[in-house]
Amino acid sequence: MPDIKVTPLGAGQDVGRSCILVSVGGKNIMLDCGMHMGYNDDRRFPDFSYITQNGRLTDFLDCVIISHFHLDHCGALPYMSEMVGYDGPIYMTHPTKAICPILLEDFRKITVDKKGETNFFTSQMIKDCMKKVVPLNLHQTVQVDDELEIKAYYAGHVLGAAMVLIKVGSESVVYTGDYNMTPDRHLGAAWIDKCRPDILISESTYATTIRDSKRCRERDFLKKVHETIERGGKVLIPVFALGRAQELCILLETFWERMNLKAPIYFSTGLTEKANHYYKLFITWTNQKIRKTFVQRNMFEFKHIKAFDRSYADNPGPMVVFATPGMLHAGQSLQIFKKWAGNEKNMVIMPGYCVQGTVGHKILNGQKKLEMEGRATLEVKLQVEYMSFSAHADAKGIMQLIRMAEPRNMLLVHGEAKKMEFLKDKIEQEFSISCYMPANGETTTVTTNPSVPVDISLNLLKREMALGGPLPDPKKPRTMHGTLIMKDSSLRLVSPEQALKELGLSEHQLRFTCRVHLQDPHSDSDTLSRIYSHLKSVLKGYAVQHLPDGTVMVESIVLKVSSSGEDPNLKVILLSWSYQDEELGSFLSSLLKKGLPSGL
Amino acid sequence: MSHPTLPCNVLKFKSTTIMLDCGLDTTSALYFLPLPLVHSSRLSKLPGWASKDGTVNLEKELKECAGRVFVDSQPEFCLPERELLDLSTVDVILISNYHCMMALPYITEHTGFSGTVYATEPTFQIGRLLMEELVTFMERVPKAQSATCWKNKEIQRMLPGPLKDAVDVWSWKRCYSMQEVNSALSKVQLVGYSQKVELFGAVQVTPLSSGYSLGSSNWIIQSHYEKVSYVSGSSLLTTHPQPMDQSSLKNSDVLILTGLTQIPTANPDGMLGEFCSNLAMTIRAGGNVLVPCYSSGVIYDLLECLYQFMDSANLGTTPFYFISPVANSSLEFSQIFAEWLCQNKQSKVYLPEPPFPHAELIQTNKLKHYPSIHGEFSSEFRQPCVVFTGHPSLRFGDVVHFMELWGKSSLNTIIFTEPDFSYLDALAPYQPLAMKCVYCPIDTRLNFHQVSKLLKEVQPLHVVCPEQYTQPPPAQSHRSDLMLELQPPPMAYRRCSVLGLPFRRRYERIQLQPELAKALVPSEIKPGISVATVSAVLQSKDNKHVLQPVPKPTPVPPSKKRKRLMEEVPELLSPKPLLSGSIPLDAFLASLHKSGITEVKVEETADGHILHLQAEDALIQLEEDATHIVCDNNEPLRTALRDLVLRFLQKL
């Protein structure tokens, strides 16, 4: 029995370093290749030695697919392809292909240039890795090889984020990457057709959350920012350069315009302008409203938001700063945080999920004293606010996607074990399908039950459909007969007659003849009529005919009556049928042996 | 449809009716007078036309200019045939590029059409712009009356040529409204290259890149067994669109070929060079250059070419004006379709930079775009300059104004780049004309040489094409290289002809449910060939067929009433398999012996043997292809003999 195997190397009951291996129909696919923000050691990357202890991965993988440009989904890619060794195709959408190398280079700079790590991938490796990338378009069916095909769907998590359907023969798997089921200010909602995959591998970041309305969250966010500004405080919003940043920029930009506010808004790092440029060029990936109006007004040309300079952090007076990275684990956002943390007038708003081990995670858990590098401690006096603006599906969204795709099995990754457990129960209850949540390195095996595609001769099919009538009767299903010819790898279903002809065989006629003796004091022809009436009444639904040549036919069985010279009342009924009518023939012979009912 | 580059064909395949493209023949506009944007005293003073003998007087409808007669009415277009088939039966329309969808509102509106239109996103967006432009051109200069008398058959016969010879004039229609455009476009569903779209479970259609324009596509229409390729408006030249996908066209049973180059003798690169040198010459002499063009397509390449050329020719300060109601949208849209562009332009987007250099031309104020000649343009306009504007037929749009403005000076030049209209016909209502005319048609679609190479490569079993492609162009009847020569010869069609495509469908895909497949018992009939009899229940839904195991009959609870004979009546229509093979006498006798039948008298006959089972009083007649068991009154014996015989035979 064929089966599909899924093994997470990362993101199994965890968020970070997403990397999931799938084996389906003899093909091995790696889904995402991310890094973990919470670790600085080996655990930063997925454990590729699971695939092979020695040598390159090329021989073991048919393709690698990257769902979106966030580093926890693509951060290990150059390490995997250039340092471990993989030369096969890497698939990602155009926007991901454009933005991914920039974020990788950023990551490399922070790690190598700032933290001074060695044995890390180089700029050249990023370039070489990107040469292996094959761009994917939405809904395009890409034939990886003769058997393996993949198709991308819109995921709405960040610009260019995709879900992917992987298909080998009639077996299929969908991997969602990160996705969002509600459209926001700049992206549309995730969508997939009723593809009925054997397994749906879904993220479950917000497995237990049912988020309140987006409007409320936005109003809350704006209120908090506004209040802080009013009392002269500074607002730090740690973000990743692309994604939520643009969403919040659009939100603040429109608010500033409406309220006529003057406090400056800054966006850190030189990436901003460039980032916004990507949004302009890939406008077809944004939501309907932005796409419709972009000729008149491009939403990504901001009037109130300016580039940040490091020195501005010490400026007096209120300001709002978007700074990278989003989990306060390094870089500019952490530097600004250190500067502003001591003042209770200030505020930090964490707009997204923070993985364990990051400063962001610590302060969200209420930690007031942070140990910094060099044994210094940092007191956290500023207000810490968490606002979920991550574009992940919440529990409701995940259920909605299941309803859309109608999977046969469900597998959860990219979430916390406890919360997953809860969602798993809910899914199993509501959809009565199995739901799995393997840990890293743990393999889930799902047995599939594929149907067998066969070529049926059009003659046979049409004949059958004509006989079956326009509407099938579920109470009386019609049985169809055919002969399956198996030759080389082809399977053809034809009518038995055609099969004989094609195979050059002649039919072997098997016939039976049987004489039944009967006492019946009537003339031969009367006896025949009596037999006719008898059969007619017993065999309802059969074609019983009394032919003028002195025979009775039941379907294709012939009955004749003769009498012996000595005893004209002793009738001999001659029955003759072919093997095809065996049941009926046998039935008739025993029926007639019992004699004719006297009532006739 | 008669126009080979503006096709509209209908394909019926597996009970699906598919319309291939929806092109609008706008050459009919050439019979009409231009629609000026501002009052033109020249046009309004043209004399009316009456026949010489005075019997026909159509002074109000027809005007004469330089010896030719034009209809003074809003230009009308020649529609695809609408009578041959009930348009409400069309299931889907596949669009190959934005030039081939201009007749869409005529087909989808007020006709009962209720199907779906498939197009790529650039085709849809730019097609919408071109339709919007056409509507704006017509609606901003409304004509109070429309001329119809001249269409009367009796009258048309008496008109001077070419009006006299115009065909189907009664079916010509005025332009649609924006409301109709919006309604037509609401029926479009967007698709991407290589996206497999299922139609009713019966047919799969897939668009492929055709290399001609942004989002342009060829289409594959296939079932599991048959494949029809529809090739329309394809290009092998490296311009801005994604290159043509040729390999996916392989293994076609039928390839429908339309949209070849209209100017097979002109080399696009050479024309581009000529375009630049004529432009430079005119500007240097202080004249203006007018380029009548469509608002999308070759104009992007022209701008890119000029972007490089102007500086090197020291003409860097000459302003370019692009005037169209959709100029801004067209320029903006061209920059956002990275996925649909050639590799070169795609990699620019990764930087991120706009893929087309006209962004820079706009930024540096070298290229300015305006919705019309009214408003800002009139105050900012500087001469000498280069103006790109439509419509290339010179019958409507802002180009009419520039013809009136610049036509009288020989310093100015008009350069024709669009191949859709005869430039002499286009110029006819402006004669006498002093301005210079240059004809540089740029048609990047496949030429006959490229097409025969392509067909050799993809090897379709049959080619279907418009009849125009099967003979040299009428003006160059000696050029046998300007036609399709194929073996077998292509099947040609003309307007309203109906062709039967040369394939017979024999098979259909069906799924055996795993439980059924597992229960099959294959037996080897010949080396490498096995057969198994299949008894199953057929389920057909949405043109998908599945075979399920026969459900076990639910046991009927015994009831007294039915305990008689009726219960034993065998199920109707459950025939046994066919038998094949023959029965070897000796082996058969041995097995009879084994089952205790020992007294057998064998009699040889002409065709085989007769076995007399003496103790049992039964008879078995064995022949090569037949066995006959005669056995009276002994059912157990008969069934035993039957099973013995069956052991030697194959069941099918």
From TrEMBL, chain A:
Matching Pfam families: Beta-Casp, IntS11_C, Lactamase_B_6, RMMBL
Cofactor annotation:
Zn(2+)
Question: What's the protein name?
Answer: Integrator complex subunit 11
Task: Describe the location of the Beta-Casp domain by residue ranges.
Answer: 245-363
Mind telling me which SUPFAM superfamilies this protein's record contains? Answer: Metallo-hydrolase/oxidoreductase
Report domain Metallo-beta-lactamase positions. 16-210
Q: What CDD domains does the entry give? A: INTS11-like_MBL-fold (cd16291)
Subcellular location(s) per record: Cytoplasm; Nucleus
The protein's matches in InterPro entries, at most eight in alphabetical order, are given as: Beta_Casp, INTS11-like_MBL-fold, IntS11_C, MBL, Metallo-B-lactamas, RibonucZ/Hydroxyglut_hydro, RMMBL
A molecular function GO annotation:
RNA endonuclease activity
The domain of life for this entry's organism is Eukaryota
Family, per the entry?
Belongs to the metallo-beta-lactamase superfamily. RNA-metabolizing metallo-beta-lactamase-like family. INTS11 subfamily.
Keyword list (alphabetical) reads: Cytoplasm, Hydrolase, Metal-binding, Nucleus, Zinc
Check the record and name the Gene3D superfamilies matching this protein.
Answer: 3.40.50.10890, Ribonuclease Z/Hydroxyacylglutathione hydrolase-like
Q: Name one GO cellular component term.
A: cytoplasm
* Gene label: INTS11
Q: Does the keyword Cytoplasm apply?
A: yes
Q: Name one GO biological process term.
A: snRNA processing
Q: Where does this chain mainly localize? A: cytoplasm
Automatic annotation (TrEMBL), chain B:
According to the entry, every stretch annotated as the Beta-Casp domain falls at: 299-427
One Pfam family per UniProt: IntS9_C
Q: Where in the cell is it found?
A: Cytoplasm; Nucleus
User: SUPFAM superfamilies from the xrefs?
Assistant: Metallo-hydrolase/oxidoreductase
Q: Does the keyword Endoplasmic reticulum apply?
A: no
Record key words, sorted? Cytoplasm, Nucleus
Q: In terms of domain of life, where is this protein from?
A: Eukaryota
State any GO BP term from the record: snRNA 3'-end processing
Which terms in the GO cellular component ontology are assigned? cytosol; INTAC complex; integrator complex
Similarity comment: Belongs to the metallo-beta-lactamase superfamily. RNA-metabolizing metallo-beta-lactamase-like family. INTS9 subfamily.
PANTHER family per UniProt: INTEGRATOR COMPLEX SUBUNIT 9
Can you say what this protein is called?
A: Integrator complex subunit 9
